[in-house]
Amino acid sequence: MILELNQQSAISNQQSRIIMSAKKNWPLWEVFVRSKNGLEHRHFGSLHAADAEMALENARDVYTRRNEGVSIWVVESKHITASNPEHNGELFEPAQDKVYRHPTFYDLPDDVKHM
Amino acid sequence: MSEEQIKNLEAEFEARIARDEKIEPKDWMPEKYRKTHIRQISQHAHSEIVGMLPEGNWITRAPSLRRKVALLAKVQDEAGHGLYLYSACETLGISRDELYDQLHSGKAKYSSIFNYPTVTWADMGAIGWLVDGAAIINQVPLCNTSFGPYARAMVRVCKEESFHQRQGYEIMLKLCEGTPEQKELAQDALNRWWWPSLMMFGPTDAESTHTEQSMKWKLKRKTNDELRQQFIDQTVPQADILGLTIPDPDLKWNEDRKSYDFGEINWDEFWQVVKGHGPMNKERMKARVGAWERGEWVRDAAMAHAEKQQDKKDKQAV
């Protein structure tokens, strides 16, 4: 895309979107950081980078400027498959009536210790 | 979807927010909620990015190494804050390029405070003390806002912001303890930044168009006027410690209200700057767009390199 910005702003939004999509932009990456050993990696946010190595370096600068982490994972966002909240009913509701999966479901006399 | 169905969804949505539930990106949301959030979060991100310019101006001229590392770190934080916020905004289905395009074409707004010039070193002190002070008051309530990615970004931003204000106040303090000329610099900076800082809270409640809706969605917890009053009440004693005079002859403690009364804000000036006629609007956009355009070949080269590396890997795998 070799377009001067002033030209670009003169054309419609939709057109400029088409032009922009013709050019390959830095993809989006999701960043996971382990804040200290013993803890799991947690999702911290996302960022754009040309490749995995740059994503790691950028993640270090964007998300760990104050010793927030000891380990970073990055994964390109497009590789994440997410559940759809509209299907939350069929996905998660079946667990709600399975109280027998919890220890409090079982009636035991108070005298029974260590259980 | 029928109008009736949408009405029901909207009612359920509002009820979720009223119960303090968070809204996450893939949840159903009213179009107006999405648009309002894209507008506010992107304006916020743009403000962080443009906000680097007035201070970046002084990095090479900081008076000591201590001041230089602090200012560098502060400006780097602002870049970081802009990036947290852009990625929060992108979860609403708008691309980074569209967001940049809106900023660069002048379609999107950013905080007007950055359209004022930074002419002396004391301005670095006044900005940290007043501008970051006002920003903190605006931002703290957003840590509890209804949209999850925005709230999470704000928690991180607020944690980092307090060093910004303290480093600014320390600059002011040192100038005020210095020679009469240095103290004069500090007073001059306060004179120039005081009123624009008060304007950072936006128009008066009577003039503010978005307040009611924003309160409902917890994009706002207090009104513009309440936040402005809070800022004045906490800043006046800080000026007293510096031995500086707030440039408002009508500023007076009101014993009944337990608050400061203050003079009339020049709203004409506010609207002029919002509309693009502030002292530095053109300069800021020129610097921002210039940096983006001069960086284009670097971004393209990085992408080309990444693709080549990938090709190489793919071939080795065969």
UniProtKB/TrEMBL annotation, chain B:
A Pfam family of this chain: PaaA_PaaC
Any one Gene Ontology cellular component term annotated for this protein: cytosol
UniProt xrefs under Gene3D superfamilies: 1.20.1260.10
InterPro entries cross-referenced by the UniProt entry: Aromatic_CoA_ox/epox, Ferritin-like, Ferritin-like_SF, PaaA, PaaA_PaaC
SUPFAM superfamilies the UniProt entry points to: Ferritin-like
GO molecular function: phenylacetyl-CoA 1,2-epoxidase activity
BP-aspect Gene Ontology terms: phenylacetate catabolic process
PANTHER family for this protein: 1,2-PHENYLACETYL-COA EPOXIDASE, SUBUNIT A (PTHR30458:SF2), PHENYLACETIC ACID DEGRADATION PROTEIN PAA (PTHR30458)
Protein name: 1,2-phenylacetyl-CoA epoxidase subunit A
